[in-house]
Amino acid sequence: MRIRSRRLELHVSQSELGAALGITFQQIQKYEKGVNRVAAARLNEIAAFLKTTMAALMGGDRPGDAQQSSLVSEFVSSRDGIDLIEAWSKLESQQVRRSIISLARSLAAEGH
């Protein structure tokens, strides 16, 4: 999930990452979904291409943070999550940000 999140953050496709590593995009899909384990050497290659560290891709979740970390990881590994983060970072008005949070909470409470 962290590989996918970082890849999307950099706007890199599975095909581009696979080509850089000399493997198929299907193999990247399997890594991202957790179907296949990622060997340490391969993780090092992925981290280098994605300009991050192996530790960042492996995570260092503390006990008790699992649920919050899971929600955040799921959000930032989605295309919608990345789009929202990019748009949010361009908002300067605190009032607009608070209004968006309020709207999102209302919609969630209504089950939308």
Summary of the model, kept short:
The chain has 8 helices and no strands.
Attribute tags:
112 residues; 434 Repressor (Amino-terminal Domain); 8 helices
Describe the structure.
The protein folds into 2 domains: 2-58, lambda repressor-like DNA-binding domains (434 Repressor (Amino-terminal Domain), Orthogonal Bundle); 66-109, no CATH class. The chain is elongated. It is mainly α. The chain has helices spanning 2-9, 14-21, 25-33, 40-49, 54-58, 66-76, 79-90, 94-109. It starts with a helix and ends with a helix. Helix 2 crosses helix 3 (25-33).
Characterize the overall form.
elongated
Going by CATH, what is the homologous superfamily of the largest domain?
A: lambda repressor-like DNA-binding domains
Return residue spans where pLDDT drops below 50 for at least 5 consecutive residues.
Answer: 61-67
CATH topology annotation of the largest domain: 434 Repressor (Amino-terminal Domain)
List the total number of helices.
8
Order of helices and strands: HHHHHHHH
CATH architectural arrangement of the largest domain: Orthogonal Bundle
Strand content: under 5%
CATH class group of the largest domain = Mainly Alpha
How would a textbook summarize the main sheet?
none
- The chain-level mean pLDDT equals 86
Question: Roughly what percent helix?
Answer: over 70%
For the record, give the distance between the C-alpha atoms at the N and C termini, rounded to a whole number: 26 Å
Q: How many domains in all? A: 2
* Rg, nearest Å: 17 Å
